[in-house]
Write a structure and sequence with these properties.
Helix content is 51%, strand content 10%. It has 544 residues and is an alpha/beta fold. This is AB hydrolase-1 domain-containing protein. It comes from Ascodesmis nigricans.
């Protein structure tokens, strides 16, 4: 019988000899193949290497320096994205000079949000890469690239978004590419470590990993849908940008932004004298599709000879102004635009809704040029706290954040066949990001700057200023605060021509036939200046 000594080998030939150290366990290293006899004595030969279980925590792609490095770089990119997102968030409420954009800024903020969310997703699901996730990343990358092309190539969008919006889109594109790189490297490291430590590649996942992959897939599907909606909305915006503005877009505030001003009709009579021009101030929506349409009809009927209207910052064809933007600041922009356009009055101001606040401030600052005011269901200063409600501001901010998705715009455009005119100044103008931003700006300063300006305007406005007040009967009956506010407007002057309440008229009083007739009559009285008030300082009103 062959003998085995510790540390020594048998004298048999190499083909049928085996060497063991004394005291070795069954996991000892086999140096040569055992023969049949030794197999019977000592059992099956031990494996050449000791492999780990696939479920062992040591089997991890984090063993690789490249995987760990990408993770730490991802943390840094997340911090950069969050800081950028925070700066754009602050700029939504108080414009940082370097980050001012002529557009609403909602797209730039949304791209920053997308980039920050993408980096969070990368870190949350870093250790569980999947082909499905990479496919969704590639889809998101493609649509972000299309977004960037549209923003850069469409001039109105490019000027509106400015450099910060372009950088935000480009950053979201880079971050998405980084996510694809991380997912690819981690998957390669996962497979290589499995093969090295377990002896083979396997695709088996734990329950926790499957939950992670499923959650990541749902999140990335949402990201892909968001970028698709961004693309549709940008395409609609590019189309709207081709609609030419009537009149002129005039740079104001040291050429920082432009406002739209349009004057219709000759400003001189046949004998060369200047005519009194109607200066219209729209309410809660652009003038072009509402107040200006009635004035155009009145001009056609020869009730008036000439009128001008403008779009406040953020409305119609006007750019958004920097925040804060009070009513007095908007009036300053109008005054500058009129001066640059060579328009000097004399004026009769016609204002509707919230536009009444702006017209009264304008009148107090141009007393010599303003010959009278026609307040059409105008907003009284006593109700400014309604405009300044924090809940309203939160709602407007949320609408602005969701605006880049453009779901309502896509539905109205694709299924309801709305035109460019409807979206820019017509019935769907309330869906525009610029108008949402302008109303948010209006809300933020309604009870502070604007309230102080209108109180000062009330004190400055001469008591002999001719004023006519025409109110919606439906609004007066439905809201006591509104009725009291209309009554207070009728006490602004000692020369109030009358307070007319058109019984069946809505807020747009001129849409009612009787309301249109009353408005044209009062407007004629203001233009002719040949009819005195029917009372001294005690106002009256008529239900019509």
């Amino acid at each position: 019988m062959a003998k085995f000594w510790p540390g020594k080998s048998s004298n048999r030939s190499a083909n049928n000899s085996t060497t063991y150290d004394a005291g070795e366990s069954s996991s000892a290293t086999r140096t040569l193949d055992a023969d049949e006899r030794t197999s019977l004595l000592h059992g099956p030969p031990p494996p050449r290497h000791h492999h780990l279980s696939p479920d062992d925590p040591a089997v991890s792609p984090y063993n690789l320096f490249s995987v760990r490095s990408l993770r730490w770089i991802s943390v840094i990119l997340l911090l950069v994205s969050f800081l950028w997102w925070l700066v754009l968030l602050i700029s939504t409420f108080i414009t940082i000079p370097a980050f001012y954009t002529r557009g609403s800024g909602w797209f730039g903020f949304s791209y920053a949000t997308l980039a920050t969310g993408t980096m969070l997703a990368v870190l949350m699901f870093y250790g569980t890469p999947s082909k499905t996730e990479r496919g969704l990343w590639f889809g998101t990358l493609f649509f972000l690239f299309v977004n960037l092309i549209i923003i850069v190539s469409a001039e109105p969008i490019r000027e509106g978004e400015n450099w910060s919006g372009i950088v935000s889109c480009a950053w979201a594109l880079i971050i998405t590419g980084w996510a694809i790189l991380c997912d690819t490297v981690v998957e390669h490291g996962r497979h290589s470590e499995n093969e090295r430590l377990t002896g083979h590649r396997h695709s088996r996942r734990t329950f926790r990993e499957w939950v992670s992959v499923f959650s990541g897939t749902i999140l990335l599907v949402i990201c892909l849908l968001v970028t698709i909606l961004f693309t549709i909305n940008l395409s609609i915006l590019a189309r709207d940008g081709t609609l030419p503005a009537p009149g002129h877009r005039i740079p104001v505030d040291n050429n920082r932004y432009q406002v739209h001003l349009h004057c219709i009709g000759s400003n001189t009579t046949t004998d060369g004298s200047h005519v009194t021009t109607i200066l219209a101030e729209a309410g809660e929506h652009p003038a072009e599709g509402r107040l200006a349409s009635w004035l155009s009809s009145a001009q056609s009927d020869q009730h008036i000879q000439r009128f001008c209207y403008w779009d406040r910052p953020g409305y119609g064809w006007s750019d958004n102004a920097a925040s804060p933007m009070s009513a007095g600041m908007a009036v300053d922009a109008l005054s500058e635009a009129l001066e640059k356009a060579g328009e000097h009055g004399p004026w009769v101001l016609v204002s509707h809704g919230i536009g009444g606040i702006y017209s009264r401030i304008f009148a107090s600052r141009h007393v010599k040029d303003v010959k009278g005011l026609l307040l059409v269901d105008a907003f009284p200063e006593s109700l400014l706290p309604r405009i300044g409600k924090s809940k309203r501001g939160l709602w407007l901010w949320l609408r602005g954040v969701l605006y880049p998705l453009g779901i309502d715009r896509a539905i109205s455009t694709i299924f309801m066949r709305r035109s460019r005119e409807d979206r820019v100044f017509g019935r769907n103008s309330w869906q525009r990001g610029g108008e949402i931003k302008a109303k948010l700006q209006e809300q933020m300063v309604a009870t502070t700057f604007t309230m102080n300006e209108i109180v000062a305007a009330r004190a400055i406005l001469p008591r002999e200023m001719p004023i006519a007040v025409v109110s919606s009967g439906k609004s007066v009956k439905a809201d006591k605060g509104w009725a009291d506010g209309q009554r207070s407007l009728a006490k602004l002057s000692d020369r109030v021509l009358g307070w007319d309440v058109v019984n069946n008229a809505g807020h747009d009083v001129w849409r009612d036939e009787k309301g249109k007739e009353v408005l044209e009559r009062r407007l004629g009285q203001l233009l002719n200046q040949n009819q005195q008030s029917r009372y001294g300082s005690s106002p009256f009103f008529d239900f019509i």
